[in-house]
Amino acid sequence: MTEKTETFAPSAEQLEALARAALARIPEPFAAHLKDVVLIIEDFADEETLRDMGIEDPFELTGLYSGRPVGEKSPFDVAAMPDRVHLYRRPLLDEWVDTGVSLEALITHVVVHEVGHHFGLSDEDMHALEEAAG
Q1: Does residue 11 surpass a pLDDT of 70?
Q2: To which H or E segment does residue 128 belong?
Q3: 26: Cβ–Cβ under 8 A, 6 or more apart, which residues?
Q4: Angle between helices 12-24 and 103-119 in degrees, nearest 10
Q5: Cα 109 vs. chain centroid, distance in angstroms?
Q6: What is the pLDDT of residue 29?
C-alpha cells in the first residue's frame, strides 16, 4: 500500500520568510536604506491598483513598490506613508509552477526588482543588484 503525500502551496508566511531572507542579502549601501520598508504579502493586488496600472489580469502582477524613491525624499516630508513592497502570492505561485524556477530565486528576483524601484535603479542596475543578492 502506498502512502499518499499531500503537498500544499506555500503560505503567505512562507513567502514572507523568503522575501525577508532576500532583503537581508541585499548589500550595502542599499541595505542601510531598507530598514523602514514595509513588506506586505497579499494573494492579489486590489482592483484599484490593477485599474491604476492598466492591468486586467491579476495574475500579471507579482509585486509592486509603493512609495517615494530614495533620491526623491526630503527631510521636510511630513507624515509620509512608509515605503512598501507588495508581493502577490497567487501570481508568484503560478509563475513558480509555470517557469520551474526555484521559489527562492523567483522571490529574490521580484524583491530585488521592487527594491530597485525604491532606489530609482535602471533594469540593468537591478540585474547587478540581483546578482549581488543572489
Answers
A1: yes
A2: helix 123-133
A3: 34, 112, 115, 129, 132, 133
A4: 60
A5: 8
A6: 84
